[in-house]
């Protein structure tokens, strides 16, 4: 796929995977729409992008109904969206027995309902043109479970299921649906992960610090979009192999996760 002059909308574009995807797509000649809550950081990202025509549209995925209304009202003022990348999200590192119920609400609003709202707003225009790609950044945690991730993993499993159904529904309209499941990628996700009170834990995690470089991960993701894949795992080491191990050795995998005590 040639990305030159394509319009790519990326959520969670102020840092991490979203930021790197924006940088790489701009280098490939795409026009990028940057979304996140922090306008200052989005402005900084935009200033680094190659080319012209890039846009900033602030969105708060924790308010999905507002996102749906805002984007629906804005869409007629924007260029046709060729690729939507639902990347914005938040993780969690806390035990179910210790979690406030609101933690689960926060995770589902951002990771699942925010994605649904933006897709709901943009997909009809793609269907009308019989062209477009919907990309969802789920997680390896959306394929396998582990301790301290009940809320995060649950929301990411929901994303995988949603995308499987959506793919089947829009195939007749020539719409490409890709689910990307990253493993440990070296970003700030661990620092931003919610604790049992729903507040960012602000501390590192060894598996993330030693994870795949974000530039490498973004490159693999763009390649998957270009090749119109349905689902890909992007990760190295155990984080990349976990879904395969769980598939072929489920009992062993479940025993290992029960013994693992890392956040």
Automatic annotation (TrEMBL):
Pfam families: adh_short. It comes from the Bacteria. Gene3D superfamilies: NAD(P)-binding Rossmann-like Domain (3.40.50.720). SUPFAM superfamilies: NAD(P)-binding Rossmann-fold domains. Keywords: Oxidoreductase. NCBIfam families: PRK06181.1 (NF004825). Belongs to the short-chain dehydrogenases/reductases (SDR) family. This is SDR family oxidoreductase.
């Amino acid at each position: 796929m040639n990305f030159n002059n394509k319009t790519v909308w990326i959520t969670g574009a102020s840092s991490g995977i979203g930021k790197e995807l924006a940088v790489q797509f701009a280098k490939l000649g795409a026009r990028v729409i940057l979304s996140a809550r922090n306008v200052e950081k989005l402005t900084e990202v935009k200033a680094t992008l190659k080319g012209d025509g890039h846009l900033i549209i602030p969105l708060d995925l924790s308010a999905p109904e507002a996102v749906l209304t805002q984007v629906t009202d804005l869409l007629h003022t924007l260029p046709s969206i060729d690729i939507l990348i639902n990347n914005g999200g938040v993780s969690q590192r806390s035990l179910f027995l210790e979690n406030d119920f609101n933690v689960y609400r926060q995770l589902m609003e951002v990771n699942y309902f925010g994605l649904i709202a933006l897709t709901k707003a943009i997909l009809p225009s793609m269907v009308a043109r019989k062209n477009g790609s919907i990309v969802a950044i789920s997680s390896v945690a959306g394929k396998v479970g582990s301790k301290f991730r009940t809320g995060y993993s649950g929301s990411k499993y929901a994303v995988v299921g949603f995308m499987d159904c959506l793919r089947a529904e829009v195939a007749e309209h020539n719409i490409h649906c890709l689910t990307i499941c990253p493993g440990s990628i070296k970003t700030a996700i661990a620092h931003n992960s919610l604790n049992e009170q729903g507040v960012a834990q602000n501390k590192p995690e060894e598996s993330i610090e030693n994870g795949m470089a974000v530039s490498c991960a973004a490159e693999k993701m763009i390649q998957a979009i270009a090749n119109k894949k349905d689902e890909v795992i992007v990760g190295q080491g155990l984080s990349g192999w976990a879904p395969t191990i769980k598939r072929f050795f489920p009992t062993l995998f479940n025993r290992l996760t029960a013994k693992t005590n890392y956040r």
